[in-house]
Amino acid sequence: MSDAIARLLDVRARIAACAAESGRDAGDVRLVAVSKTHPIDAIRPLLEAGHRIFGENRVQEAAAKFPALREDHPDLELHLIGPLQSNKAGDAVALFDVIETVDREKIARELAREMERQQRRLRLYVQVNTGEEPQKAGIAPGDAVAFVERCRSVHGLAIEGLMCIPPADENPGPHFALLRQLARECRVERLSMGMSGDYEIAVAFGATSVRVGSAIFGHRPALPSVPRETRLSHAVATLPARPISLR
């Protein structure tokens, strides 16, 4: 068994444990393996082990890797989890199955146009900038409900869920709780939240998909961070006592 497959199994086990602790079914949480910066040879073992859901940050990088992988695995599901430029909308619609980063009117308009032109219906998420960080993509929390409604009524887009990336130096729990509340207000049931450092917290707060890269493919050099156990105990201290539901 390769290291990546062993790490994949470990992540799945952690997701299942966190889901059980929250009174949820582990099958309700989808694992998106984030393969950005990793070559085809690093992705193939996971496909051969049965994993099918992957995430990429850039259209150009994904286009260089996934068409060849789809030849052998046509049931592969590819998510765009990085910012989308409007001039890449056509390529994105042709390549991806899910776009998680709809965050402005121009992108909504271009995606609607390209999906109509290509006769492809992608699953779409609106990215919310829960920390209102100026350097980060995403719609402001206060604008999210109105934006989702415009996506539906003006552009004819079926928004499946919301996505967020909390500030790196903050407890993610309140950001996940905010996204969960916005999902209720937007009348969507899917929540894409949680990455390698905080996916267990995200599951506890109701994530329906988590985006995990380095915890599966291996760590890249990074700044020191608070230990996982400390973050988990800190964030989960704010959880409600009963199981989480978006209904």
User: The CATH topology is what?
Assistant: TIM Barrel
Number of discrete domains: 1
Number of strands: 8
Cα(first) to Cα(last) distance is 40 Å
SS-derived structural category: alpha/beta
Q: What is the multimeric organization of the chains shown?
A: single chain
Biggest sheet strand line-up? 7-6-5-4-3-2-1-8
The parts where pLDDT drops under 50 for at least 5 residues are: 221-226, 240-247
Q: Tell me, rounded to a whole number, the average pLDDT.
A: 91
- The CATH C-level class name: Alpha Beta
Shape: globular
What portion of the residues fall into strands of 2 or more residues? 5-15%
Summarize, please.
The protein has helices at residues 3-21, 40-48, 59-72, 89-95, 105-118, 144-153, 173-186, 199-204, 214-217, 228-236, and strands spanning 30-34, 53-56, 77-80, 98-102, 123-128, 159-164, 190-192, 209-212.
Architecture overview:
GO terms for molecular function: pyridoxal phosphate binding. Residues 27-221 form the Alanine racemase N-terminal domain. Belongs to the pyridoxal phosphate-binding protein YggS/PROSC family. The modification N6-(pyridoxal phosphate)lysine is found at residue 36. With 247 residues, this protein is an alpha/beta fold. The chain has one domain: Alpha-Beta Barrel (TIM Barrel), CATH 3.20.20.10. Helices cover 43% and strands 15% of the residues. It is built from ten helices and eight strands. The protein has an eight-stranded parallel sheet with strand order 7-6-5-4-3-2-1-8. Strand 5 (123-128), helix 6 (144-153) and strand 6 (159-164) form a beta-alpha-beta unit. The longest helix is centred in the first third of the chain and has 19 residues, at 3-21. 40% of the residues are buried.
